[in-house]
Design a protein that fits this description.
The chain has four helices and seven strands. It has helices spanning 10-17, 33-46, 91-105, 122-128; strands at residues 2-4, 48-54, 57-66, 74-82, 110-116, 132-143, 146-156. The chain has a seven-stranded mixed beta sheet with strand order 1-2-3-4-5-7-6, sandwiched between helices. It starts with a strand and ends with a strand. It binds coenzyme A.
Amino acid sequence: MLRKCTKNDIQYIYKIYFHPTVNPFMNIKTMSLNDFSDYWAKRMINEDIFVWVEGDKIAGMICINQESNRCSGTVTLCSLAIHPDYHNKGLGRKMVNEILSKLKKDKIVRVQLIVEEDNDKARPFYKKLGFEEEGKLRKYFNREGKFIDEIMMARLL
Ligand SMILES: CC(C)(COP(=O)(O)OP(=O)(O)OC[C@H]1O[C@@H](n2cnc3c(N)ncnc32)[C@H](O)[C@@H]1OP(=O)(O)O)[C@@H](O)C(=O)NCCC(=O)NCCS
């Protein structure tokens, strides 16, 4: 089930964000739960953040940012992750599809994101969900001193 993120979810989001197989693809370096709580609380003010609840557990999250003015038909997705305990069970697909349906109702016409070139799970995942690669941001992402290209992907609704 998709629902809006609340402050009570932050400790569970922290566990997903800093899982060793997830964190290399998140735009944040290691930090304490306290520091992360402050960082996430600020993001909750400025972004639309949703969690995917499976049973009584937070299994994933996704952030939505609507662009402004003449670009307001576009939404940028970020910080999308499913906890590895739940990978390959179709939850990522369900979560993104629910978001896309909601955005379509809201008259959004374009949904975009960036993904690291070496993210061999997420790139095929997004392609399966109808996103197309549109370009490259060279050496945009710094992972422990190694600069990695970002692939720009988008799909129209
Ligand atoms: C990418 C991610 C969200 C996928 O979530 P998931 O719940 O495991 O994906 P699903 O089970 O819903 O898979 C949906 C489709 O993507 C495909 N897919 C998922 N993982 C894949 C992989 N490792 N390799 C190839 N295809 C994959 C599936 O085959 C499936 O297609 P199908 O239904 O036709 O079989 C998850 O691996 C993740 O959280 N990764 C770490 C964080 C991350 O990289 N986030 C992206 C940041 S840009």
